[in-house]
What we know:
Elements (H helix, E strand, L loop, with lengths): L9 H17 L5 E9 L4 H13 L2 E7 L5 H6 L3 H6 L3 E5 L15 H26 L3 E4 L20 H18 L3 E4 L1 H8 L1 H4 L2 H7 L8 H15 L6 E4 L10 H4 L11 H16 L5 E7 L2 H8 L13 E5 L3 H12 L6 E4 L3 H10 L11 H10 L10 H4 L1 H15 L5 H7 L2 E6 L3 H13 L12 H9 L3 E10 L2 E14 L2 E9 L8 H15 L4 E6 L11 H4 L3 E5 L5 E6 L10 E4 L2 H4 L2
Parallel strand pairs: 1-2, 1-3, 3-4, 4-5, 6-7, 6-9, 7-8, 10-17, 13-14
Antiparallel strand pairs: 10-11, 11-12, 12-13, 14-16, 15-16
Amino acid sequence: MKELEYPFDSEYIIKKRKSLKRQLLADGSKRLKKKIAVFGGSTTNDIVVYLDLFLLDQGIEAEFYQSEYAQYWQDAMFPSEELLNFAPDMVFIHTTNRNILNYPTTADSREQVDKMLEAEMDKFRQMWEKIKETYHCPIIQNNFEMPFYRLMGNKDCSDYRGRLNYLTRLNEEFYKYAENNEGFYINDINYISASFGLRQWSDPSYWNMYKYAMCVDAIPEFSFNLANIIKSVYGKNKKALALDLDNTLWGGVVGDDGVDGIQIGQETGVSQSYYEFQNYVKSLKSLGVILTVCSKNDHENAIAGLNHPEGALKPDDFIIIKANWENKDRNILETARELNIMPDAIVFADDNPAEREIVRAQVSGVAVPEMDSVENYIINLDRGGYFEVTNFSADDLKRNEMYKANAERMAQQASFADYGEYLKSLEMTAVIDDFIPVYLQRITQLTNKSNQFNVTTKRYTPTEMEEVAESGEYIRLYGKLIDKFGDNGVVSVVIGHKSGEVLDMDLWIMSCRVLKRDMEFAMLDRLAERSKAAGIKTIKGYYYPTAKNKMVKDLYGTFGFTKVSEDDEGNSVWELSLDGYEPKNRFIRVEDNSSIINN
């Protein structure tokens, strides 16, 4: 919904929150359902109201539990029966500097301040550990915003007795905990409050009158930032950025002004702004964001512009370059098809409001940020939270290389008349084996990102995945595929729950970038092998339809399973007897974990 995209009008959202929610619910979208417990150190009602809106817009329908005012510690440490029955999928702890009861005084020694800091940190640490132990779910914790006054003036930040110094040290302890604990995330209100304007954010009247930790106008900004973390945890991030060229990546029109006439580089303020934006876009590659071009231009002019000596971006930075005179909505749909992703995984950045409106209307789910002037390009993309990082794996660093190698594979495929011969030419090797710690983060990430090749759409938190990995009740497999063009990384995950002589499939997912390369059959063969060794005689598969996973509706049928039931909503159950099972993979050499450990 455009009204809920950054930069939004907070005043409008506050006034229209009820009608906005009605519109969101009326669109009939099938959303991910999650239960979120909010433990508040201040009043949280309005935070939940706007968080609900932003999450609905991101495809998440949340049910909320809220603690009573300032009861965050009690709810965490001594949960009520109501809270235990609620069984949250995520806990958000809304504390601010107003909840710090003991601050240093000018009479305190350094040792006293250090002990005070450790005691405060211990209180939070005990609370986090208790929540993890009780609910085994992700935790989001606010850090601390700066105080609205400085007793010691500028020295408040550098003197160990300063309140600002104390809060900075507490924040550092929070960050260390986040770094060492999977499934624990910081909601950075220190940054959001500074960006909003600390003086307005911390207006004391709102605390004194309503026990709000921030002014009312700041609550939508706060809730939007929080929603970005939640949607990222649950795999709702965007994957690709489709960029216009003229007056987006450089100033001017390369076809009219020529390469020498476009504005990019260090000569003027405007050209520096475009150069800075190009640098920002290039940095997104390091997060695994796929870069593409979607421009109305002659291809030769586009390449010439991207090869400008003062530009930060070059043609090789882009996986796909659509520089032609087709409508941009068609080019974006074609880009999604070539990348094997859904169109709603794309962000479209274009300075032309007419082009933005056409794409927004014609391509469902695509994000179309406002690009009103080059000075705001970075802010609007960055604060939009489209590529919010919560989990970051080694595969993310290599994603652009992987997609570029995929383009080379597609080019080679076109040269083969026989598809089987093409698959042989790829010289594929797969490592398919039980989970190992080095890949657990990527395995968890894949379960939350895969939507199309995902028969049950079950999601796992890091804690839940660790429990599965350590349990003897499951047969688990990850699949890593390598070919002559490069390493595709971990591309498939299978989890089955043992029940006597039956294996019930909880999860079967695969990255669509390796679709139709026999990887699904290689995974099935290994699953059959491990199941037989565990005394399993029947594998039972389940398909639960969503708007995105229609491609795997008959997956089990292609595997040789027999459909045993299907209800009115399309949910189906399949069975495969392992008696006389014959391997189906023809083109992939399969290895086990020893090949990785030994290397």
